[in-house]
Every structure is written in structure tokens, then in C-alpha cells.
């Protein structure tokens, strides 16, 4: 049963989201402003896990169903589904769609959580991977929290650093990244001798519903991101990387050993550690330190200091607390060094090198 307090909290979340999202995602901002005055729509989130009762989950769930019905009246408001989206009020069509798909929507809300496999973050990984490859030769790449494994296909994408130039061969997936500072853009993509993804619940790219949920979690106003994801999924389906179901802490050492048998092991994670509890982050770093005490190892991560500290080594500068920090940690002959390389857009749109 929904209490008055829960009602108020949900409505307030939609009202707040309408304000913060207005510049970035106008469709969801417009919908959120309307849902803030429609309790029967906001209440749908009661069916979700308490930690997931956020506007973005409701909108992703609706998007998930709209993708299955691209000819629906609501779909005409989605910039990723039509070349000339309707700029009028989407709330009536949204409310009608929710009412017509109530049971399906409740099932999605009850079983899903927001998930992002942002392929654009590969543009952040290429420069530090190039540095490590220059030092050590071909790499054994381990992507932790790999989701669908799209980061593991990073050497099949083309990169456009502005300034910095293009890296990689022609590809249906082109990732643009604005740069500032002396970003160490490699002349060629770093050689990857072995690769492996590790995830507690990896996404099966042959499962249409799983892929559709990844697509649904992309904001419709960001049509370029949406179509880039589709292209990356299609490319990776034809060249599927090995992905292992496992825990980020318990199974980490064995996964490093797997990729590092014949190549220098590099562990990567991008916006993953915020999903671990503080004690899990401490244990994650302890495993890396134990491996690094026994053999050379590199670790590249793009994470937000406010989300992962103090367990993970991040800059102490308070101005960087809510940014995405790109960091390279090296263990060489048992000694650890930490290099905070720069700050970045969370989706890889830009990189500012220190």
C-alpha cells in the first residue's frame, strides 16, 4: 500500500529530475514535470526495488516497451526513433501508453535495474592502454563489470580525438572525443593479445530482450549514443569476446591469471566500482595489490571520486569529487605507483589531460 509519505517522495523526485534534466534530456524533463503532478504515474515505481525508485527507471521501462512498438503514438516523441520528433506535450500519450501496458510495465519495473554499457568510454581507455602497451608490449585485457563486453571490442572501433587525430581502421563504430591538454593519443591501437570480461550478470548479446534493455537505458534525446550502441552490439555479435560470469572480488585473481599467461595483464573498469559496497571496494583493491606484489600489473579506471572514495585511490582535490577521473595504477617489481591522468566526461565525450 502506498503511503502519503511515499507518494510525496516520488512526486518530489520527478519534480527535481525535471529541473536537473531540462538541458540534457528535454523529453524526459518534460515528462518528469508532468508525472510530478500525476500520482498514479509516479506510483508505478512502487513496484521497483526501493533503491531503484527513480524517474530514470520508469522512463527506461517505458522506453523498453516503446522500442517493441516503434509505431505507437508515444514513439513519435522519441528523437532516437523518428527523424522529426513531435515537440508537443508528450504526457497524454505517455499516460495512455502506461495505462494500456500496465501489467507489462509493472513486470519490467519489478525485475529490472538501470544498466549502462557506454561504448564511448572506450575513447578514455585507449590513451592509457597505449602507454602501457608501449612499456610492456601486447596486453592481456580484463574488463571488470563488462556487461555486454562492448569495451572488450575497443580495438574494432575507430576513434576521433579532437585535437589528436584519428586512431584505428574504418569501423561502423566511430567514437569522437574532445581533448584538452597533452593527451597521449597513440599512433595505433594498442595490441591486445588476450581478453576477458568479468561480470556478475553479463548481458547475452544473442538475447534480444537483454539488448533492448541496454538500448532502453540510453536517453532518447541522445540519438547518436543510441545508434552507436546498436552499431557496437551488431559488430560485437559478429566477433564475440569471451565473457565470464563471476564476482568482481572472488573471481578477480583467477581472471587476471587467465589473461596474463602470455601478456602483460591490464584490468579496466569504468563506472563500475560505485556499484560495489565500501568493503567490496576495499577487497577489490586488496586482490589487485596481492597480484601486483607477485607480478607486474596495470589497472586503468574511470570512476567518480565521490562514488568510490576513500577505498579507491582518487585525487584529494574537492573540485574533482563529482567528476570522472581517469587513473592508471602500475605495479612494477612489487611497487605501486598511481598516476591520475585527467578528468573526463562520464560517457567519454571529452578528456582533459593533466
How would you summarize this macromolecular structure in one to three sentences?
The chain has 354 residues and is of the alpha/beta class. It is 38% helix and 19% strand.
Q: What letter string, H or E per element, gives the SSE order?
A: HHHHHHHEEEEEHHEHEHEHEEE
Number of domains: 2
- Overall pLDDT, averaged? 95
The proportion of residues forming helix, as a percent range, comes to 25-40%
For the biggest sheet, the summary is:
11 strands, mixed
Terminal CA distance reads: 52 Å
Give the strand line-up of the largest sheet.
3-2-4-11-10-9-8-7-1-5-6
Fold and architecture overview:
- The longest helix is centred in the N-terminal third of the chain and has 17 residues, at 4-20.
- This protein folds into 2 domains: 4-111; 119-205 and 240-353, 3-Layer(aba) Sandwich (Rossmann fold), CATH 3.40.50.
- The mean pLDDT is 95.
- Strands 3-2-4-11-10-9-8-7-1-5-6 form an 11-stranded mixed β-sheet, sandwiched between helices.
- The protein has helices at 4-20, 26-35, 39-42, 55-68, 91-100, 102-111, 122-136, 208-216, 223-238, 252-259, 278-294, 305-308; strands spanning 139-144, 158-162, 165-167, 174-180, 192-199, 243-245, 264-270, 297-303, 324-332, 335-344, 350-353.
- It contains 12 helices and 11 strands.
- The chain has 354 residues and is α/β, with parallel strands linked by helices.
- Strand 10 (335-344) and strand 11 form a beta hairpin.
Write the layout of secondary structure elements.
Elements (H helix, E strand, L loop, with lengths): L3 H17 L5 H10 L3 H4 L12 H14 L22 H10 L1 H10 L10 H15 L2 E6 L13 E5 L2 E3 L6 E7 L11 E8 L8 H9 L6 H16 L4 E3 L6 H8 L4 E7 L7 H17 L2 E7 L1 H4 L15 E9 L2 E10 L5 E4 L1
Parallel strand pairs: 1-5, 1-7, 2-4, 4-11, 5-6, 7-8
Antiparallel strand pairs: 2-3, 8-9, 9-10, 10-11
Helix pairs in contact: 1-2, 4-6, 4-8
Amino acid at each position: 500500500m502506498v503511503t502519503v509519505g511515499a507518494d510525496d517522495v516520488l512526486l518530489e523526485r520527478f519534480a527535481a529530475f525535471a529541473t536537473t534534466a531540462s538541458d540534457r534530456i528535454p523529453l524526459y524533463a518534460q515528462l518528469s514535470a508532468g508525472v510530478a503532478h500525476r500520482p498514479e504515474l509516479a506510483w508505478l515505481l512502487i513496484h521497483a526495488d526501493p533503491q531503484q525508485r527513480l524517474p530514470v527507471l520508469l522512463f527506461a521501462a517505458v522506453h523498453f516497451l516503446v522500442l517493441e512498438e516503434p509505431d505507437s503514438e508515444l514513439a513519435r516523441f522519441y528523437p532516437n526513433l523518428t527523424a522529426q520528433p513531435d515537440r508537443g506535450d508528450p504526457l497524454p500519450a505517455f499516460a495512455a501508453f502506461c495505462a494500456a501496458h500496465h501489467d507489462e510495465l509493472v513486470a519490467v519495473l519489478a525485475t529490472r535495474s538501470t544498466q549502462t554499457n557506454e561504448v564511448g568510454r572506450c575513447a578514455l581507455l585507449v590513451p592509457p592502454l597505449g602507454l602501457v602497451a608501449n612499456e610492456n608490449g601486447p596486453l592481456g585485457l580484463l574488463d571488470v563489470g563488462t556487461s555486454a563486453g562492448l569495451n572488450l571490442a575497443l580495438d574494432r572501433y575507430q576513434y576521433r580525438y579532437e585535437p589528436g587525430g584519428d586512431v584505428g581502421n574504418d569501423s561502423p563504430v566511430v567514437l569522437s572525443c574532445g581533448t584538452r591538454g597533452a593527451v597521449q593519443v597513440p599512433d595505433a591501437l594498442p595490441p591486445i593479445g588476450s581478453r576477458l570480461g568479468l561480470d556478475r550478470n553479463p548481458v547475452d548479446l544473442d538475447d534480444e530482450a537483454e539488448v533492448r534493455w541496454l538500448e532502453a537505458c540510453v536517453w532518447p534525446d541522445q540519438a547518436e549514443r543510441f545508434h552507436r550502441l546498436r552499431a557496437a552490439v551488431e559488430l560485437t555479435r559478429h566477433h564475440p569476446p569471451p565473457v565470464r560470469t563471476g564476482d568482481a572480488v572472488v573471481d578477480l585473481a583467477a581472471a587476471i591469471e587467465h589473461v596474463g599467461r602470455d601478456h602483460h595483464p591490464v584490468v579496466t573498469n569504468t563506472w563500475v566500482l560505485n556499484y560495489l559496497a565500501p568493503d567490496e571496494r576495499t577487497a577489490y583493491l586488496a586482490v589487485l595489490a596481492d597480484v601486483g606484489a607477485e607480478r607486474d600489473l596495470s589497472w586503468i579506471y574511470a570512476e567518480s571520486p565521490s562514488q568510490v572514495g576513500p577505498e579507491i585511490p582518487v585525487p584529494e582535490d574537492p573540485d574533482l569529487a563529482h567528476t570522472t577521473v581517469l587513473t592508471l595504477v602500475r605495479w612494477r617489481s612489487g611497487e605501486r605507483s598511481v598516476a591520475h591522468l585527467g578528468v573526463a566526461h562520464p560517457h567519454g565525450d571529452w578528456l582533459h589531460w593533466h
